[in-house]
């Protein structure tokens, strides 16, 4: 059982002596550097329209600097937000890069692709700064994943260099109202992760006061009875108090004594962003905030006790001069190269950090040629066996999701895997899809290979933000980071349907930037595509159609432990000369039945993967047959069929003898009654009719 350390509401300056660990000269330098950057941006670079989106950290600096200077372990992982620039400086972000980001210059942390305060920093022997996001609260669950990965590296892989490493996540008071915060808090406290939540409470989320984010406005007070969590709460403008609290908080998490929440109150001495005039604050509030300026309080605490007035001024001058030089150098940097704007959506070059590729992980041999066993297996067994083989071969692979442990998953895909590989490799999660995907992202960034299960496709909705941010990560960071996670996701109808368990909506993932998407129709392809996904270097959605998991049609001989199916290669299920059907998932079987029953010579293509999709196979086939029917279970409007139809219409315009047709679910949720379901999802009979109609056009 965890012991709860006593809360430390307000350690006074008298109680707390300056700690030897605090390099006050460095703190002094960095606070002035941060102020100078803010001021030069506010007074010069924003008016000159050189910085287009500006965020200052004035008032927030002290706690961040004290924390950043203590995050020195090689495997520390840090989650930050847009007001974290002082923390970044303390962690080693160079002044020139700090200035170049907001100027959207070449180099720096996103090469002009992202807002200049949406930071990231691969480890160069010290802490990693996990790619930040614009979405408030999105920083929390990836840090929980990082903290879990620390434990995995240390205890499961036996890597002693992870001893004492921690995850630190930084957010504002309003971020404590987000899904991400609560999800990460559940993760950290149930698993007793080495994770430090650092909340900087400035009383506002833009203009909304903290009483609307948590009752009474103090998240630390409200979490006082939360099990397995130690709370430290104090004044982030008082150098000695803040230093003492930061030191205790970091030490406790480093000692692996469970997660800590540290809340420091700070004034926001500026608008929320460059555009914000703070008209919603009264003059009295602004005056009170100014009176709490941590820079002034730092000066009073240090001068003359720890340094002379001349020292203080000289450090301030040095910082100012260095920042001015850095800004001029940043301004002299080239603008980003527009010719590169489409690069790094998917893996072209190995990223600096994230997943196994930067570690030059050696996978076993692979073949595209199946070595079929004698006995056929259903798709569920095929998936389970592929997970089993990859778990055995790759010690960094972890499989997790709701009920995947002792129960073996509600669909049975992970049955027996926890018994075989243990609770660290195959495990249950809390019921938070944001937590499942955010954790997967953090684990991937920490060098593991996470395979997450979302119980039903529709229940990926609460993870939408993490999925979206994961897909765009490589591009946003200009290939510095990628999180190649595999997300297994059953969906589609099964005997009956309903709006919750049967949705496919695969088009959402194809539209999401940076995701590879597989939707196999049978056991052999499921093996090859899942293995390709688990050995790949891009985030991948692996859609498991519920109707096909045990369908007799989908049973195939297991194709071997080395078998992979390359993404972007359609399977020609049936050769024909009069009409091409393009389809995937559960519709492949129905289309095959319909084609066999029709008198038309149909060529049937199973796309197998939708991102990328095999344009060449489709166009070659349509240019031969001169007719095209696209069949999918997803709804009609803006379904993936629309994209295929647009490409076929453009690229095969002169070859077509009939309009390109789409046969899909109507634009309704999946119905429950089998009668209604048959009226909605294309049946073999309806597909046959469409074949005849197009053939006779
Ligand atoms: C999910 C999400 N909702 C809304 C916003 C717009 N927004 C940006 S910052 C912010 C306030 C955040 O306040 P807080 O977390 O307290 O941090 P502070 O700015 O005070 O440092 C809001 C509403 C956003 N970026 N993300």
Account of the protein in words:
This protein starts with 23 loop residues before the first helix and ends with a helix. A seven-stranded mixed β-sheet has the order 11-10-12-13-15-14-20, with helices on both faces. Strands 2-1-3-4-8-7 form a six-stranded parallel β-sheet, with helices on both faces. Strands 17-19-18-21-22 form a five-stranded mixed β-sheet, with helices on both faces. 36% of the residues lie in helices and 14% in strands. The protein has 697 residues and is α/β, with parallel strands linked by helices. It has 22 helices and 22 strands. The longest helix has 24 residues, at 309-332. The structure holds thiamine diphosphate. Thiamine diphosphate binds at residues 83, 134-137, 171-175, 202, 204-206, 272.
Topology:
Blueprint: H1 24-45, H2 61-68, E1 77-79, H3 85-91, H4 95-100, E2 128-130, H5 140-156, E3 167-172, H6 179-191, E4 195-201, E5 204-205, E6 208-209, H7 219-222, E7 230-235, H8 239-254, E8 260-265, H9 283-291, H10 294-302, H11 309-332, E9 376-377, H12 379-393, E10 397-401, H13 417-421, E11 426-428, H14 433-445, E12 449-453, H15 464-476, E13 486-491, H16 507-511, E14 516-518, H17 523-534, E15 540-545, E16 556-557, E17 571-574, E18 579-583, H18 587-597, E19 602-606, E20 609-611, H19 615-625, E21 628-635, H20 640-651, E22 661-665, H21 674-680, H22 684-695
Parallel strand pairs: 1-2, 1-3, 3-4, 4-8, 7-8, 10-11, 10-12, 12-13, 13-15, 14-15, 18-19, 18-21, 21-22
Antiparallel strand pairs: 5-6, 9-16, 14-20, 17-19
Helix pairs in contact: 1-2, 1-3, 1-10, 1-11, 2-3, 2-8, 5-6, 5-14, 6-14, 12-17, 14-15, 18-22, 19-20
The chain binds thiamine diphosphate.
The site of thiamine diphosphate (TPP) has 15 residues, from β3 and β5.
């Amino acid at each position: 059982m965890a012991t709860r350390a006593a809360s430390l509401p307000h350690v006074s300056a008298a109680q707390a002596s300056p700690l030897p660990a605090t390099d006050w000269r460095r703190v002094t330098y960095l606070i002035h550097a941060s102020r100078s950057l803010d001021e030069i941006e506010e007074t010069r670079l924003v008016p000159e329209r050189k910085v287009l989106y500006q965020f200052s950290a004035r008032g927030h600096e002290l706690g961040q600097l004290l924390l950043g200077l203590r995050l020195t372990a090689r495997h520390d992982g840090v989650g930050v937000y847009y007001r974290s620039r002082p923390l970044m400086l303390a962690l080693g972000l160079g002044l020139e890069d700090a200035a170049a980001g907001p100027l959207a210059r070449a180099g720096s942390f996103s090469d002009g692709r992202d807002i200049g305060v949406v930071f990231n920093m691969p480890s160069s022997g010290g802490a990693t700064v996990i790619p930040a996001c614009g979405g408030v609260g999105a920083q929390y669950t990836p840090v929980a994943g990082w903290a879990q990965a620390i434990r995995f590296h240390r205890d499961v892989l036996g890597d002693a260099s992870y001893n004492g490493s921690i995850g630190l996540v930084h957010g504002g008071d309003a971020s404590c109202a987000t899904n991400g915060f609560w999800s990460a808090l559940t993760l950290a406290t149930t698993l007793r992760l080495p994770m430090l939540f650092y909340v900087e409470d400035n009383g506002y989320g833009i203009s909304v006061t903290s009483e609307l984010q948590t009752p009474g406005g103090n998240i630390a007070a409200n979490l006082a009875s939360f099990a397995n969590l130690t709370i430290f709460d104090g004044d982030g403008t008082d150098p000695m108090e803040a230093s003492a609290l930061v030191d205790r908080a970091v030490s406790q998490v480093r000692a692996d004594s469970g997660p800590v929440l540290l809340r420091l109150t700070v004034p926001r001495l500026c608008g929320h962003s460059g555009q914000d005039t703070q008209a919603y604050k009264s003059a009295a509030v602004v005056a009170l905030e100014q009176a709490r300026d941590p820079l002034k309080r730092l000066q009073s605490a240090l001068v003359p006790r720890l340094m002379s007035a001349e020292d203080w001024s000289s450090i301030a001058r040095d910082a100012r001069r260095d920042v001015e030089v850095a800004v001029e150098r940043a301004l002299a940097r080239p603008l980003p190269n527009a010719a590169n704007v489409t690069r790094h959506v998917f893996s072209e070059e190995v990223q600096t950090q994230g997943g196994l590729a930067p570690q030059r992980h050696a996978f076993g041999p692979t073949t595209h040629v199946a070595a079929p066993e004698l006995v056929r297996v259903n798709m569920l067994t095929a998936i389970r066996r592929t997970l089993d083989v990859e778990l055995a071969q790759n010690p960094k692979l972890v499989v997790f999701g709701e009920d995947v442990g002792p129960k073996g998953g509600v669909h049975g895909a992970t049955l027996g895997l926890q018994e075989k590989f243990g609770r660290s490799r195959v495990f249950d999660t809390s019921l938070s899809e944001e937590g499942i995907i955010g954790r997967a992202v953090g684990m991937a960034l920490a060098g593991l290979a996470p395979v997450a299960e979302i119980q039903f496709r529709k229940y990926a909705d609460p993870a939408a933000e993490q999925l979206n941010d994961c897909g765009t990560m490589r591009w946003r960071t200009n290939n510095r980071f990628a999180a190649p996670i595999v997300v297994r996701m059953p969906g589609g109808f099964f005997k009956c349907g309903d709006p919750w368990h049967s949705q496919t909506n695969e088009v959402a993932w194809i539209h999401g930037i940076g995701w590879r998407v597989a939707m196999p129709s049978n056991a052999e392809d499921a093996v090859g595509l899942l293995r390709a996904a688990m050995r790949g270097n891009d985030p991948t959605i692996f859609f498991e159609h519920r109707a096909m998991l045990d369908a007799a049609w989908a049973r195939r001989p297991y194709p071997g432990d080395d078998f992979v199916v390359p993404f972007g290669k359609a399977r020609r299920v049936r050769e024909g000369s009069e009409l091409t059907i393009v389809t995937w998932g559960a519709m492949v079987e129905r289309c095959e039945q319909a084609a066999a029953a029709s008198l038309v010579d149909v060529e049937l293509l199973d796309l197998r993967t939708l991102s990328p999709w095999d344009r060449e196979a489709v166009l070659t086939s349509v240019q031969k047959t001169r007719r095209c029917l696209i069949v999918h279970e997803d709804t009609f409007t803006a379904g993936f069929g629309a994209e295929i139809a647009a490409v076929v219409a453009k690229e095969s315009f002169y070859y077509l003898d009939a309009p390109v047709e789409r046969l899909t679910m109507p634009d309704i949720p999946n119905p429950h009654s089998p009668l209604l379901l048959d009226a909605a999802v294309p049946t073999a009979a309806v597909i046959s009719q469409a074949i005849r109609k197009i053939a006779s056009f």
